[in-house]
Amino acid sequence: MVDKIIIENLSLQYSDGTESLRNISMKIPENEIMVLFGPAGGGKSTLLRCFNRLNDLTEVRASTGKILIDGENILDQKTDVIALRRKVGMVFARPVVLPMSIRSNLTYGLELAGETRRSRLDEAVERSLRLAAIWDEVKDRLEEPAIDLSGGQQQRLCLARSLALQPEIILLDEPTSGLDPISTGKVEAALQELKKDYTIILVPHSIQQAARTADHAAFFLQGELVEFRPGREIFTNPKDKRTEDYVTGRFG
Amino acid sequence: MNRVSSSTRNLIQRLGFGFLTLMTIFTVVPIIAVVVYIISKGSPAISWEFLSGFPHDGMRAGGILPAIIGTLYLTLGTALFAVPLGVAAAIYLAEYAPDNRWTRLIRIAIINLAGIPSVVYGLFGLGLFVIFLKFGTSILAASLTLSIMTLPVIISTAEEALRAVPQSFRTVSISVGATRWQTIRRIVLKEALPGILTGIILGLERAAGETAPILFTGAAFFLPRLPGSLFDATMALPYHLFVISTQVPDMPIQIQYGTALVLLVFVLGMNLTATIIRSRARARRQW
Question: Which pLDDT belongs to residue A209?
């Protein structure tokens, strides 16, 4: 098992003091679903946004430590963040489709990356839509505005959009929080397929989803990594008292 | 508990709505009255000769072509300076500027700029453009003066339009590898364009109708020919209206109202365009 991402002593604090990370160290293996879970404000999303340097958009007061992706510290000033974001795709809690056609939503990132060949773009559109398990539903309406899709379809389109760039890592921040159970099932099924080729880091929207999907799971509480275990034993046999309280529903 | 009977409450409700309706009518009636009055008094003067001819007999007869052309020139000139500057400033303020004392100061300055009486702009334009920069009484000086007056309107409406574009679009765009500028150019500006255009038109509309700022900077009492360059003075509709209403004895009243009507159509036409752009964009908007 190869570690795709290695986090070393990562600490971070937002300027407004909302969420923070305290001395996080962990390893995220390749081709698995890594689940980050815990109560709100625990630092999961903050950590997720470190992997593609989306925190650059927010005012961060202080940050120390390293995140190595394929051995390279991406928190380094010299990191090419544009290239990083093409390598690390992200899906947000609310499906945000860009105000353009379904097709353009998928080609947007590729065109920015300089791809102009129609055949390559078409290929990427079909491939990513198939991977996100939405191809059959939208293949005849690619030129329609993406906003006309249902919420569940929009979220899978967002997944497809991040896949279109052929990333290596996919970050998902509560991707099914606004979806009905059927759409949620479709997204989760797609993730199980995707992990064969991608490294997936998921912040689940419920503890049940965490237990259903996790190959590895990490419990975050108030910016601290409390417990980090392979497999699903963290849900059935937690070691830390705080983890146990949370997974048994005593708080959160 | 229920001491007020439902019929009393109903009556109060109806009185309230009646009052509000009445107040709305009070605000609309004067506007309609002005328009109807100007149209009925001014339309007899409108003819091809009036629109395409030069004034003669000491402006008591003939047309108002130089004033129409002059106002067109001034409006275009104002757009030339105010639009790029205003939109660029709005992009900076909405997308790049950090929230600190400096940018707050800029914003306060812009708001206050909008409150300055137009005649003060005129005097400022006289001092800076006409005399100090030696542009003379000219289309250039008048356009620049009008631009400064128009800038606050353009900047604040454009900034508002940019801010109305959901933040999530920017985040998503950045997350698929767009730079900040690519995000602005390809998504934010495109979505904010109708709002920006509306602000531009409303700003230019005000510029087109103003008299005081051009009074000392570019408006001519009478010119026998059309202006040939940016450094020529020009006649303009609002100033021409002022002149023929107050400075020329024995002025036929219908020429005054005809001129007022042309100015009104010009300005209301711009307003209508802005309204159409806005409602169309709202129907097409995907958020």
Answer: 92
Domain housing B130: 69-235
Tally A–B CB contacts below 8 A. Answer: 65
Total domains, chain A: 1
Return the pLDDT at A180. Answer: 87
Q: CA B220 to CA B209: how far, in whole Å? A: 16
Which phi and psi (to 5°) does residue B148 adopt?
A: -60, -40
Per-residue confidence (pLDDT) for residue B38, from 0 to 100: 94
Which of B172, B178, B179 is opposite residue A96, by nearest beta carbon?
B172
Identify the pLDDT of residue B282: 85
Strands A224-230 and A60-69: unpaired
Give the three-state DSSP class for A70. coil
In a domain, A46, yes or no: yes
B chain contacts of residue A112, beta-carbon cutoff 8 Å: 176-178, 182, 186
Q: Does a structural domain hold residue A71?
A: yes
**What CATH number does the domain containing A52 carry?**
3.40.50.300
Look-up of token digits 């007020």: B4
pLDDT at A153: 92
pLDDT (mean) for B234-258: 91
b/e burial code for range B253-274 (CB count within 10 A of at least 16 → b): ebbbbbbbbbbbbbbeebeeeb
How many angstroms separate the first and last alpha carbons of chain B?
46
pTM to 2 decimal places: 0.86
Residue of B nearest to A54 (CA): B175
What is the distance between the terminal CA atoms of chain A, rounded to a whole angstrom?
Answer: 33
Low-confidence stretches of chain A (pLDDT < 70) are: 252
pLDDT value of residue B3: 67
